[in-house]
Amino acid sequence: MAASSYDGALAGLLAHEGGYSNHPSDPGGPTNFGITIADYRKYVKADATAADVKAMTIGQAKAIYRARYWDAQRCDELPAGVDYAVFDYGVNSGIGRSGKVLRRLLKLPDTTHQVSDEVIAAARVADAATLVAAICDERLRFLKALKTWPVFGRGWGRRVAEVKAAALTMAKHATAPPGPHSSNLSPHNQPAARGLFHALISFFAPFRRL
């Protein structure tokens, strides 16, 4: 059985998402560890306030990411690299979009976002690197079309580039993604891409898939 990429993917995602924010231009409103107040109300506390979101624990965030984003998209069953690209896209833009994009790129009906057995089978016979590149390229096009691109575009663009680079390396080497180590990153202010490839090989070699 292949090793799960989840721990590495989550580490990379949390480094990109950062801590608490409530940017006036962010439609997500109060957000912590990348979890918006809407998601917190949906999965943790129905009447949650901004203060509740700010007090969210990292454990709560991890539980939401595992169940509602990683498992919901069956990432453990997707090829290395594709799993990370789909997971990060789903967190950033919603699994409704990431799932449909994955299906569309695999030439399957996108009337649903569900990652079905048919999707898993198609993804496994596809060229993983080509699929990763297509997912990330579509994601960047989508983000550039948003009215908030002038505000958040620089960070978003850097994030997509870093995820794409790491996911392509995963697809080539069949490893878990790198987990950038930083506790002082703010949302929408993603870390620089340098060092990502090297972190992948040196820190996550034990997670190589068989």
Tell me what the structure shows.
This protein starts with 5 loop residues before the first helix and ends in a 6-residue tail after the last helix. The protein has 210 residues and is mainly alpha-helical. It is globular. α5 packs parallel to α8 and α6 crosses α8. Strands 1-2 form a two-stranded antiparallel ribbon. It has one domain: Chitosanase, subunit A, domain 1, CATH 1.20.141.10. The C terminus is likely disordered.
The secondary structure category is mainly alpha
Q: Segments where pLDDT lies below 50 for 5+ residues?
A: 179-210
Order of helices and strands: HEEHHHHHHHHH
CATH C-level class = Mainly Alpha
Ordered list of secondary-structure elements with their pairings:
Elements: H1 6-17, E1 31-32, E2 35-36, H2 37-43, H3 50-54, H4 58-70, H5 82-93, H6 95-105, H7 117-125, H8 128-144, H9 149-173, H10 196-204
Antiparallel strand pairs: 1-2
TL;DR of this structure?
The chain is an all-alpha fold. The protein is 57% helix and 2% strand.
Summary keywords:
single chain; 210 residues; mainly alpha; Chitosanase, subunit A, domain 1
